[in-house]
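[Q] Does anyone have a clean structure-token version of this?
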Amino acid sequence: MKAQDYLKIGASAVLGFGAMRLPDDKETERMVDAFLAGGFNYFDTAWIYGGSEERLKRTLVKRYARDKFVVANKLPPWEVKNHRDCDKLFEEQRIRTGLEFFDFYLIHSLDDGREVEVEKMRLFDWAMEKKERGLVKHIGFSFHGTTAYLSRLLKAHPESEIALLQLNYSDIMRGEAGEWQKLALAHNIPIAVMEPIRGGALANLPASAEKILRDYDSSRSIASWAVQYAATLEGVTCMLSGMSNMEQLEDNMKTFRNLKPLTTEELEMLDRVLVEMGKVASIPCTACKYCHANCPLEIDIAACFSLYNDLKRGGAGWNLGMMYRGLPDGKRAENCTSCGACNAHCPQKIDIPGNLRTVVSAF
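[A] Here you go.
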């Protein structure tokens, strides 16, 4: 079965259930049940999504027949030095999820800094061996690098069957993500979209930007515009959303039931939204928390950045300041020693220590 056969529903992209930000087991079970009942079946997890593999085992794998769902998992190249390490980690992931095989298995978070190491370790050869043994149905990669690296990657690895790319209206209209989409199309590789709402940033807009969308259609959620944009991009076969409550799930499913491309007028409206967003200096954190595992002081970096961004978007300073001071001792921005251990693991290439100092100044 081709990768597209797993993913395509008519002419529209599939809604994928991203497991990065799952709630507790009880709520996750409700969401899994509603997701499957809604006609969707693609679940995405990863080694680094703290506890998500085990949670999917409890809430999905143990409760449904294997042919009722599709699971994508990922190999973290920063955790391995050779194929023996890959094998050990892969077996642990099978135990964590309770699965004999993965429908999709991706080399995770590739960027320019990992290019030499990934090729030296022959990670794609290792993944192909797993596919030949039936332990993986389809292989691919997730990407956070430069356009030049993506071009080299696609040429070097035509065996890839899916590319997980960060595509949203902000990164395409104001960044180079549109070039990534064009490269994937040129190489005829199916695209799965991550961060369509940019970690929530496109759902929590500055007041002036939100007003543009509310005035156009007050019946829709702010997030639905970003979801519709990403899901209807050419070449996109799956759009992942890291849903963390039933309200988000139901809103996404509603958008997908009526999925159609945005009109020229609506695209121009999103451009005006970005103009308003550009007037607010925020930190482009998507709350992936890859940096957390590498902070020796265990600072809650994502929470610090989120509170700061809410403040810059016009949130109540007294309340956000109270929430910032309410973070556990040792977890706040002022505890950062600027060691820089976090920076290499940030897909958004944020100067984390520098921005933590900005957070300290703001609060």
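[Q] Thanks! Anything notable?
[A] The first helix runs from residue 3 to 7.
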